[in-house]
Amino acid sequence: MKFTVSQSSLAKALLVVAKGMATNSTLPYLSGIYIKAQDGTLEFQTSNLTISIRHRIAANVEEEGETVVSGKVLTSIVKTLPDAAVSFDMTAGSHTLQISCHKSNFRLNTLEASDFPEFPTFALNRSIELPSALLSEMVDKVYKVTSRDTSRPILQGVLLSVEENTIRLVATDSYRLAVCDSNAETSSADEAFVTIVPGATFHDVLSSPSMTEQIMVGTTDSQVVFVFGNTTYVTRKIEGNFPNYRQLLPSSYATAVKLDVSEFGSALKRVSVIASGNPSVRLDADADGKLLRLSASSPDQGESSEMIDAEIDGSSMSIALNFHYVLDCVNAVNGSDELTLELQGPMQPAIYKSYGKINYLYLLMPVRM
Fold first, then answer.
1. Which of 242, 74, 244 is nearest to 159 (CA)?
2. Over the stretch 198-225, which tens digit does the pLDDT of each residue have?
3. Last residue within a domain, chosen from 245, 268, 287
4. Model pTM?
5. What is residue 334's DSSP assignment?
6. What string of H, E and C letters represents the secondary structure of 262-330?
7. What is the rounded distance in angstroms from the CA atom of residue 127 to the CA atom of residue 193?
8. Domain boundary at 115, 149, 169, which?
């Protein structure tokens, strides 16, 4: 195997497939990168047995071949090289890969390419093309709400549904719920496209440096497949039924508080400084004075409070919420001017709503005051 490729193109390719490498595996192949040189093209593959990534780039291939090298070592080397041509050379039957660039030379031990996990084959049952920039913005708003509890894998997923050019994403960890939707031209058919995608994987895919304007999302009986440009991402589908989130959404409210996002976020950050040991922040909506009071207290640190102007519809009401979760909501709607807080009662879920290009709903369970 012998080929030459630019450092910048190689570095980007390694960044694309890096998310597919296992970090703590005892199997060296799962932390390695498979490289195949053929017909003027380099193919890179990684797999941790849950996620498999394949990415192709152009290169000057003099001799065809394939090998597997340590992903961590190769990535570290390429990062330090100047933006120049990088040459790879491996004699047939050898287990040593020679890399040279400018005045630098490296010799890496390799693994048998034939032992690397075969890239998953797939025949899609359903597929759809979506605008990647919009989808990425939507995923950013919901994926942090997915659960970290491995015992309930369904809550680690994001529900993706597309129907009549309306894209909707839903995530929940049972303490909070995030829903966002937007309208866009899609390749959706009459029947709705619905699947559940692991939240962290969804975010990684949309953050890929090889992302194109459109992304194809497809499903098989056991897989979710993403294809964009010269990159293919295959992940296991999360099996099971996503919680019926619609039954959690009330049809009315007792109190609605309209907030300036920037002002509310800044006040929340200041008040919550005192709540390091107790993540609860109390919100008191004064309907007569058109004010919202934020307050926090800690037996060790003391107390804090701040008043902000607010347009309040309905009766005065108080509720206590986990300020970490509220800040996640504020960060998700960053860029919006207005945020509405709807309350039914002090021990019933609080609902934040924001409208715009992307409509956003964030339901949060209260804590005891």
1. 242
2. 999 999 999 999 999 999 999 999 999 9
3. 245
4. 0.92
5. B
6. HHHHHHHHHHHHHHCCCCEEEEEEECCCCEEEEEEEECCCEEEEEEEECEEEECCEEEEEEHHHHHHHH
7. 8
8. 115
